[in-house]
Amino acid sequence: MCGFISIFGPDGTDTIHDVLSGLLAIQHRGQDAAGVVTFKDRFQAKKGLGLVREVFADKHLQRLKGPLAVGHVRYPTVGMGEDTDVQPFWLDYPVGVAMAHNGNVTNFHELRGSYFNHRHIHLASNCDLEAVLYVFADALMRRAGEGIDPGDVRAAVREVFDRVKGAYSVVGITAEGMYAFRDPFGIKPIILGKKTTPEGVWYAAASESVVLDVSGYEVVRDLAAGEMLWIGKDREPHFLQVADKPHRPCIFEYIYFARPDSFLDGTSVYEARMELGRRLAASFRTTGFHADVVVPVPESAKTAAQTMAEELGLPCREGFVKNRYVGRTFIMPNDETRRASIRAKLNPIRAEFEGKDVIILDDSIVRGNTSKQIVAIARQMGARKVYFASYSPPLLFPCLYGIDMSTKREFIARDRTPEELAREIGADHVLYQTVEEMIDAVRVAGGTPEREFCTACFAGEYPTGDITESMIASIEQDRLAAARG
Ligand code: AMP
């Protein structure tokens, strides 16, 4: 899971400030590496490992000139720490094109071994974006004449759809304009915004609407599944539908990834989490257990905890204080380091636990590292009863579309009943959402009763229809090997 932004400003402007503000707004989508490529007479780039504020200094802003820019923040995944893999990527020849993406190409190894080999193209990195870039640039070069028109971009996107499998939302620039496209199932988001200043009209395409908010862009609209956008010399957005598959946006965006102040495909992430909290309150009530307080695991569970508590007539309290300067625990190489960091990251407030029956609410249960420790801390702080609640169902299947969650055997809820899970994490009871309730909550929040989602990580159904057991096994092997180091 990563974040991106692409901007086309009026002639004579520099878009780097908007790009960096945008990247900061989606830093939560990737803290492992950041990069920007701009165009003014030629491509200029700055990329590096680390947070946006660590990678970019004033001197880079002087150099990253021009009205066209694309930027990216990378989500950390085990074994993907190479700086050669940092996005965006670009080609100066045979056609100048820069690109960034969010997702995962599931046939990257096959493409590398057959299609690229056959065309004598040697990829320079292990990043699957490079495969998309070459297929796109190759097709664009064959089509484009004097200048690039929407039909040329459409043909290039068609070629990408034909050859590249998986989930990928893509944004980028050429010397003449800005493009974006969403994979045929629209698994990952892209939203387009527009603003007008005395210099002229600016367009920005990004992973989340918060990017548009922070720099004063108005929402134009989300791209549809299988749709492309080209904004060229006429400065008009050209939307063209390239594929015609059912839209299956990733539901985990609403659960964990996106910021609560973002809207994805018109649905407020905040509203979705509030509704998820309400649903869980209803199912807690059916247990007949008594509780004194709801304590969210910061940060993502805060929104749902408020409505859950409200529905149950309980206070919602900050029982854990998060040290925001401790890095992400989730992708640490082994369980021992992960456990130590969780403790360093979350410190309890005794008064919220002592002598109380506590509902602790988190967004998800994956390997159980957080839940086990949190339950243990709550008990050390004198909690009488500890009920562990998750506003999504437990994760059971690997995501092959860009979220490096875990391998199957690591999912703590796999092959365990809720009672066994409660025993395993030391809680008096474990409560989680059903897949149906989760889907319904997001539908209700968006007023979209018919909407379907990619719920592969919860339910094991992969919408692209091309995921085989052997693909899952081989990806898991790669992840295990990378984790071993
Ligand atoms: P675990 O402790 O392994 O059960 O993981 C659950 C915790 O990790 C929750 O607190 C989530 O907020 C967080 N989490 C879930 N999925 C991810 C992910 N893909 N990347 C980073 N953190 C995650």
List ligands, each type once.
adenosine monophosphate
Average pLDDT rating: 92
User: What's the overall geometry?
Assistant: globular
Q: Work out the number of β strands.
A: 21
Total number of helical segments?
Answer: 16
CATH topology of the largest domain: Glutamine Phosphoribosylpyrophosphate, subunit 1, domain 1
Classify the beta-strand content into a percent band. 15-25%
Give the neighbour order of strands across the main sheet: 3-2-4-1-10-9-11
CATH architecture of the largest domain: 4-Layer Sandwich
Roughly how many Å is the radius of gyration? 23 Å
Helical amount: 25-40%
Please, how many domains? 2
**What characterizes the major β-sheet?**
7 strands, antiparallel
The N- to C-terminal Cα distance equals 21 Å
CATH class of the largest domain: Alpha Beta
Global structural class: alpha+beta
Per-chain topology:
Blueprint: E1 3-8, H1 16-25, E2 33-40, E3 42-49, H2 52-55, H3 58-63, E4 68-74, E5 89-91, E6 97-105, H4 108-118, H5 129-143, H6 150-163, E7 166-174, E8 178-182, E9 191-197, E10 200-206, H7 209-214, E11 218-222, E12 227-231, E13 237-241, H8 252-257, E14 263-264, E15 267-268, H9 269-285, E16 293-296, H10 302-312, E17 320-322, H11 335-345, E18 346-348, E19 357-362, H12 369-380, E20 385-390, H13 418-425, E21 429-432, H14 435-446, H15 456-459, H16 469-484
Parallel strand pairs: 16-19, 19-20, 20-21
Antiparallel strand pairs: 1-4, 1-10, 2-3, 2-4, 5-6, 6-7, 7-8, 8-12, 9-10, 9-11, 12-13, 14-15, 17-18
Helix pairs in contact: 5-6, 9-10, 9-14, 11-12
Bound molecules: adenosine monophosphate.
